[in-house]
Amino acid sequence: MNCCEGCSPESGKSKFKPGGNALERRDTFERPLSRNSPSSGLAMPPAAKKSKANPGSEGDDKENASTSSSASATSAATSAAGPRSDYLSWDDYFTSVAFLSAMRSKDPSTQVGACIVNSSNRIIGIGYNGFPAGCPDDALPWSRVGPMLETKYPYVCHAEVNAILNKCSADVRGARIYVALFPCNECAKMIIQSGIKEVVYLSDKYHDSDQCKASRMMFGMSGVKCRRHVPEKKRIVIEFPDVEKEVEEDRKRVREEEEEEEEGRGK
Ligand SMILES: [Zn+2]
């Protein structure tokens, strides 16, 4: 397979494969976290045009503020009289969450994340590619080549599947899922069966693969909408505040408290 993170590579013996060296080509996209981001930024494909994603959903901004990131607090557009104007659109936001989640992946070659969102723009599931729970990350192979059982492919759970299984809501019916790559056929089946109604993806570079053809066919039959999102922001950087000074003050406070305690005991 050559659609997403756990799909089999060039091993011609595998029944999971086709696609020859498709993975080689794919990896250039599947490492989006490091490709254009020398710092701790999340690099996303450039926007083809400035567009307003999910227009009309701003009304939910206030009530959903609890899920908003505290990152990138600097804003040139901030004014005392009104709200910021350069905040993240919903689509950029959830796409970024999917990319951030991918940074948790232990896979040395491919990091993929997924984010599931309900109709109220609440995140109800996040996942990234990795081995099943209880299977230590260093006990199974991460290789992409070799005999089937010596590669990662029979063991890795795809981000979409993990996001669905990790849901923090009763179910994900009617939700939408944000992914970097158009889902493979195995994930497509899971997405459909879970009741997700929309797939928002960035890249469809394996559009012509059999796996993606099968996914499209099944999505079409089952009424799952597929939409490509072109990020409005090319790059999103998370910059943590410098808390060194505060940490030093904390240490000083603890030292003083300890000294006072010692003095108290000495009396
Ligand atoms: Zn998949």
Structure, explained:
It is a single chain. The longest helix is centred in the C-terminal third of the chain and has 23 residues. The N and C termini lie far apart (75 Å). A five-stranded mixed beta sheet has the order 3-2-4-5-6, with helices on both faces. It has a two-stranded antiparallel sheet with strand order 1-7. Strand 5, helix 6 and strand 6 form a beta-alpha-beta unit. 30% of the residues lie in helices and 12% in strands. It is an alpha/beta fold and 267 residues long. Helix 5 packs parallel to helix 6. It is extended, with a radius of gyration of 22 Å. About 23% of the residues have low confidence. The site of zinc ion (ZN) has 7 residues, from helix 5. This is dCMP deaminase. Keywords: Hydrolase, Metal-binding, Nucleotide biosynthesis, Zinc. GO terms for molecular function: dCMP deaminase activity; zinc ion binding.
